Amino acid sequence: MLKKYKITAILLVGLVTTSVNADILYSNGTLDGNTNALTLGGGLVVADSFTLASNSIVTGVSFDTWSAFSQDVTNIDWAITSTAGGSVLASGTQTSVFASDLSINNQGYVLDLNAFQVPSQYLTAGTYWLQLTNATTTSGQQASWDINSASANAGPSLSWTNATGQFSAANPCSGVLAIGTTQCSSPFQIVGNVPEPAPIALLLASGFLVFGISVRRKANQV
């Protein structure tokens, strides 16, 4: 299952990238698939934190969902925010979502790995939040975002919803969410690339070229 997940993730990442140098900039672990999931719809907005180690250009997102009757996600509202539920840095409604069925879980739901492209967004190194809502399937039903906090493959992200606030040790997932977890975070990946700094020699050459043109123009004006 894990091997298939990794292979599928690589293939989907390839589909959503627009650059041959694109890579996974951040990963919050892999699918749990059996504990619980957060509904992406009905007014509920879910966000997970992610950290970029370097200045980056984000070009795509992948995430894992539960759905009934083998229905693929077709639409998703997304946003990248500065803080949990905070200022929106980039957002949109994606209607071209690549989906791949992984398996059926112990509750009868179909588990999907989904990926979509976002307009290239330059972000400096730091922590941001991926916000998702209104994930609808081919039949118009809502999909749910897998919770992997209880999994050995969980990542470090924190999670937030507009209904409950930020989950923490003092405000754990419970009840209809996920019993026994402390963060409620979900599996997802941020895709893009890290811009290569221009070589110093090239920058110096450009500077000398501009300087030379300026001197020549002044000489011609004399």
How would you describe the overall organization of this protein?
The protein has helices spanning 2-16, 200-221, and strands spanning 23-27, 36-39, 46-52, 56-67, 73-81, 88-94, 98-104, 110-123, 126-137, 144-147, 159-161, 165-166, 188-193. It is globular. The longest helix has 22 residues, at 200-221. The chain has one domain. It is α+β, with helices and mostly antiparallel strands. The model is unreliable at 175-182, 200-205 and 208-215 (pLDDT under 50). It contains two helices and 13 strands, in the order αβββββββββββββα.
Continuous helix count: 2
Q: Please give the largest β-sheet.
A: 7 strands, antiparallel
Question: How many domains comprise the coordinates?
Answer: 1
Shape summary: globular
Structural class: alpha+beta
On the 0 to 100 scale, the average pLDDT is: 79
Distance between the termini: 76 Å
The low-pLDDT segments are 175-182, 200-205, 208-215
The helix/strand order is HEEEEEEEEEEEEEH
| Radius of gyration, in angstroms, nearest whole number | 21 Å
List key phrases describing it.
single chain; 222 residues; alpha+beta; seven-stranded antiparallel beta sheet; six-stranded antiparallel beta sheet; 2 helices; 13 strands; globular
Question: What layout of secondary structure does this protein have?
Answer:
Blueprint: H1 2-16, E1 23-27, E2 36-39, E3 46-52, E4 56-67, E5 73-81, E6 88-94, E7 98-104, E8 110-123, E9 126-137, E10 144-147, E11 159-161, E12 165-166, E13 188-193, H2 200-221
Antiparallel strand pairs: 1-13, 2-10, 3-9, 3-11, 4-8, 4-10, 4-13, 5-6, 5-9, 7-8, 11-12
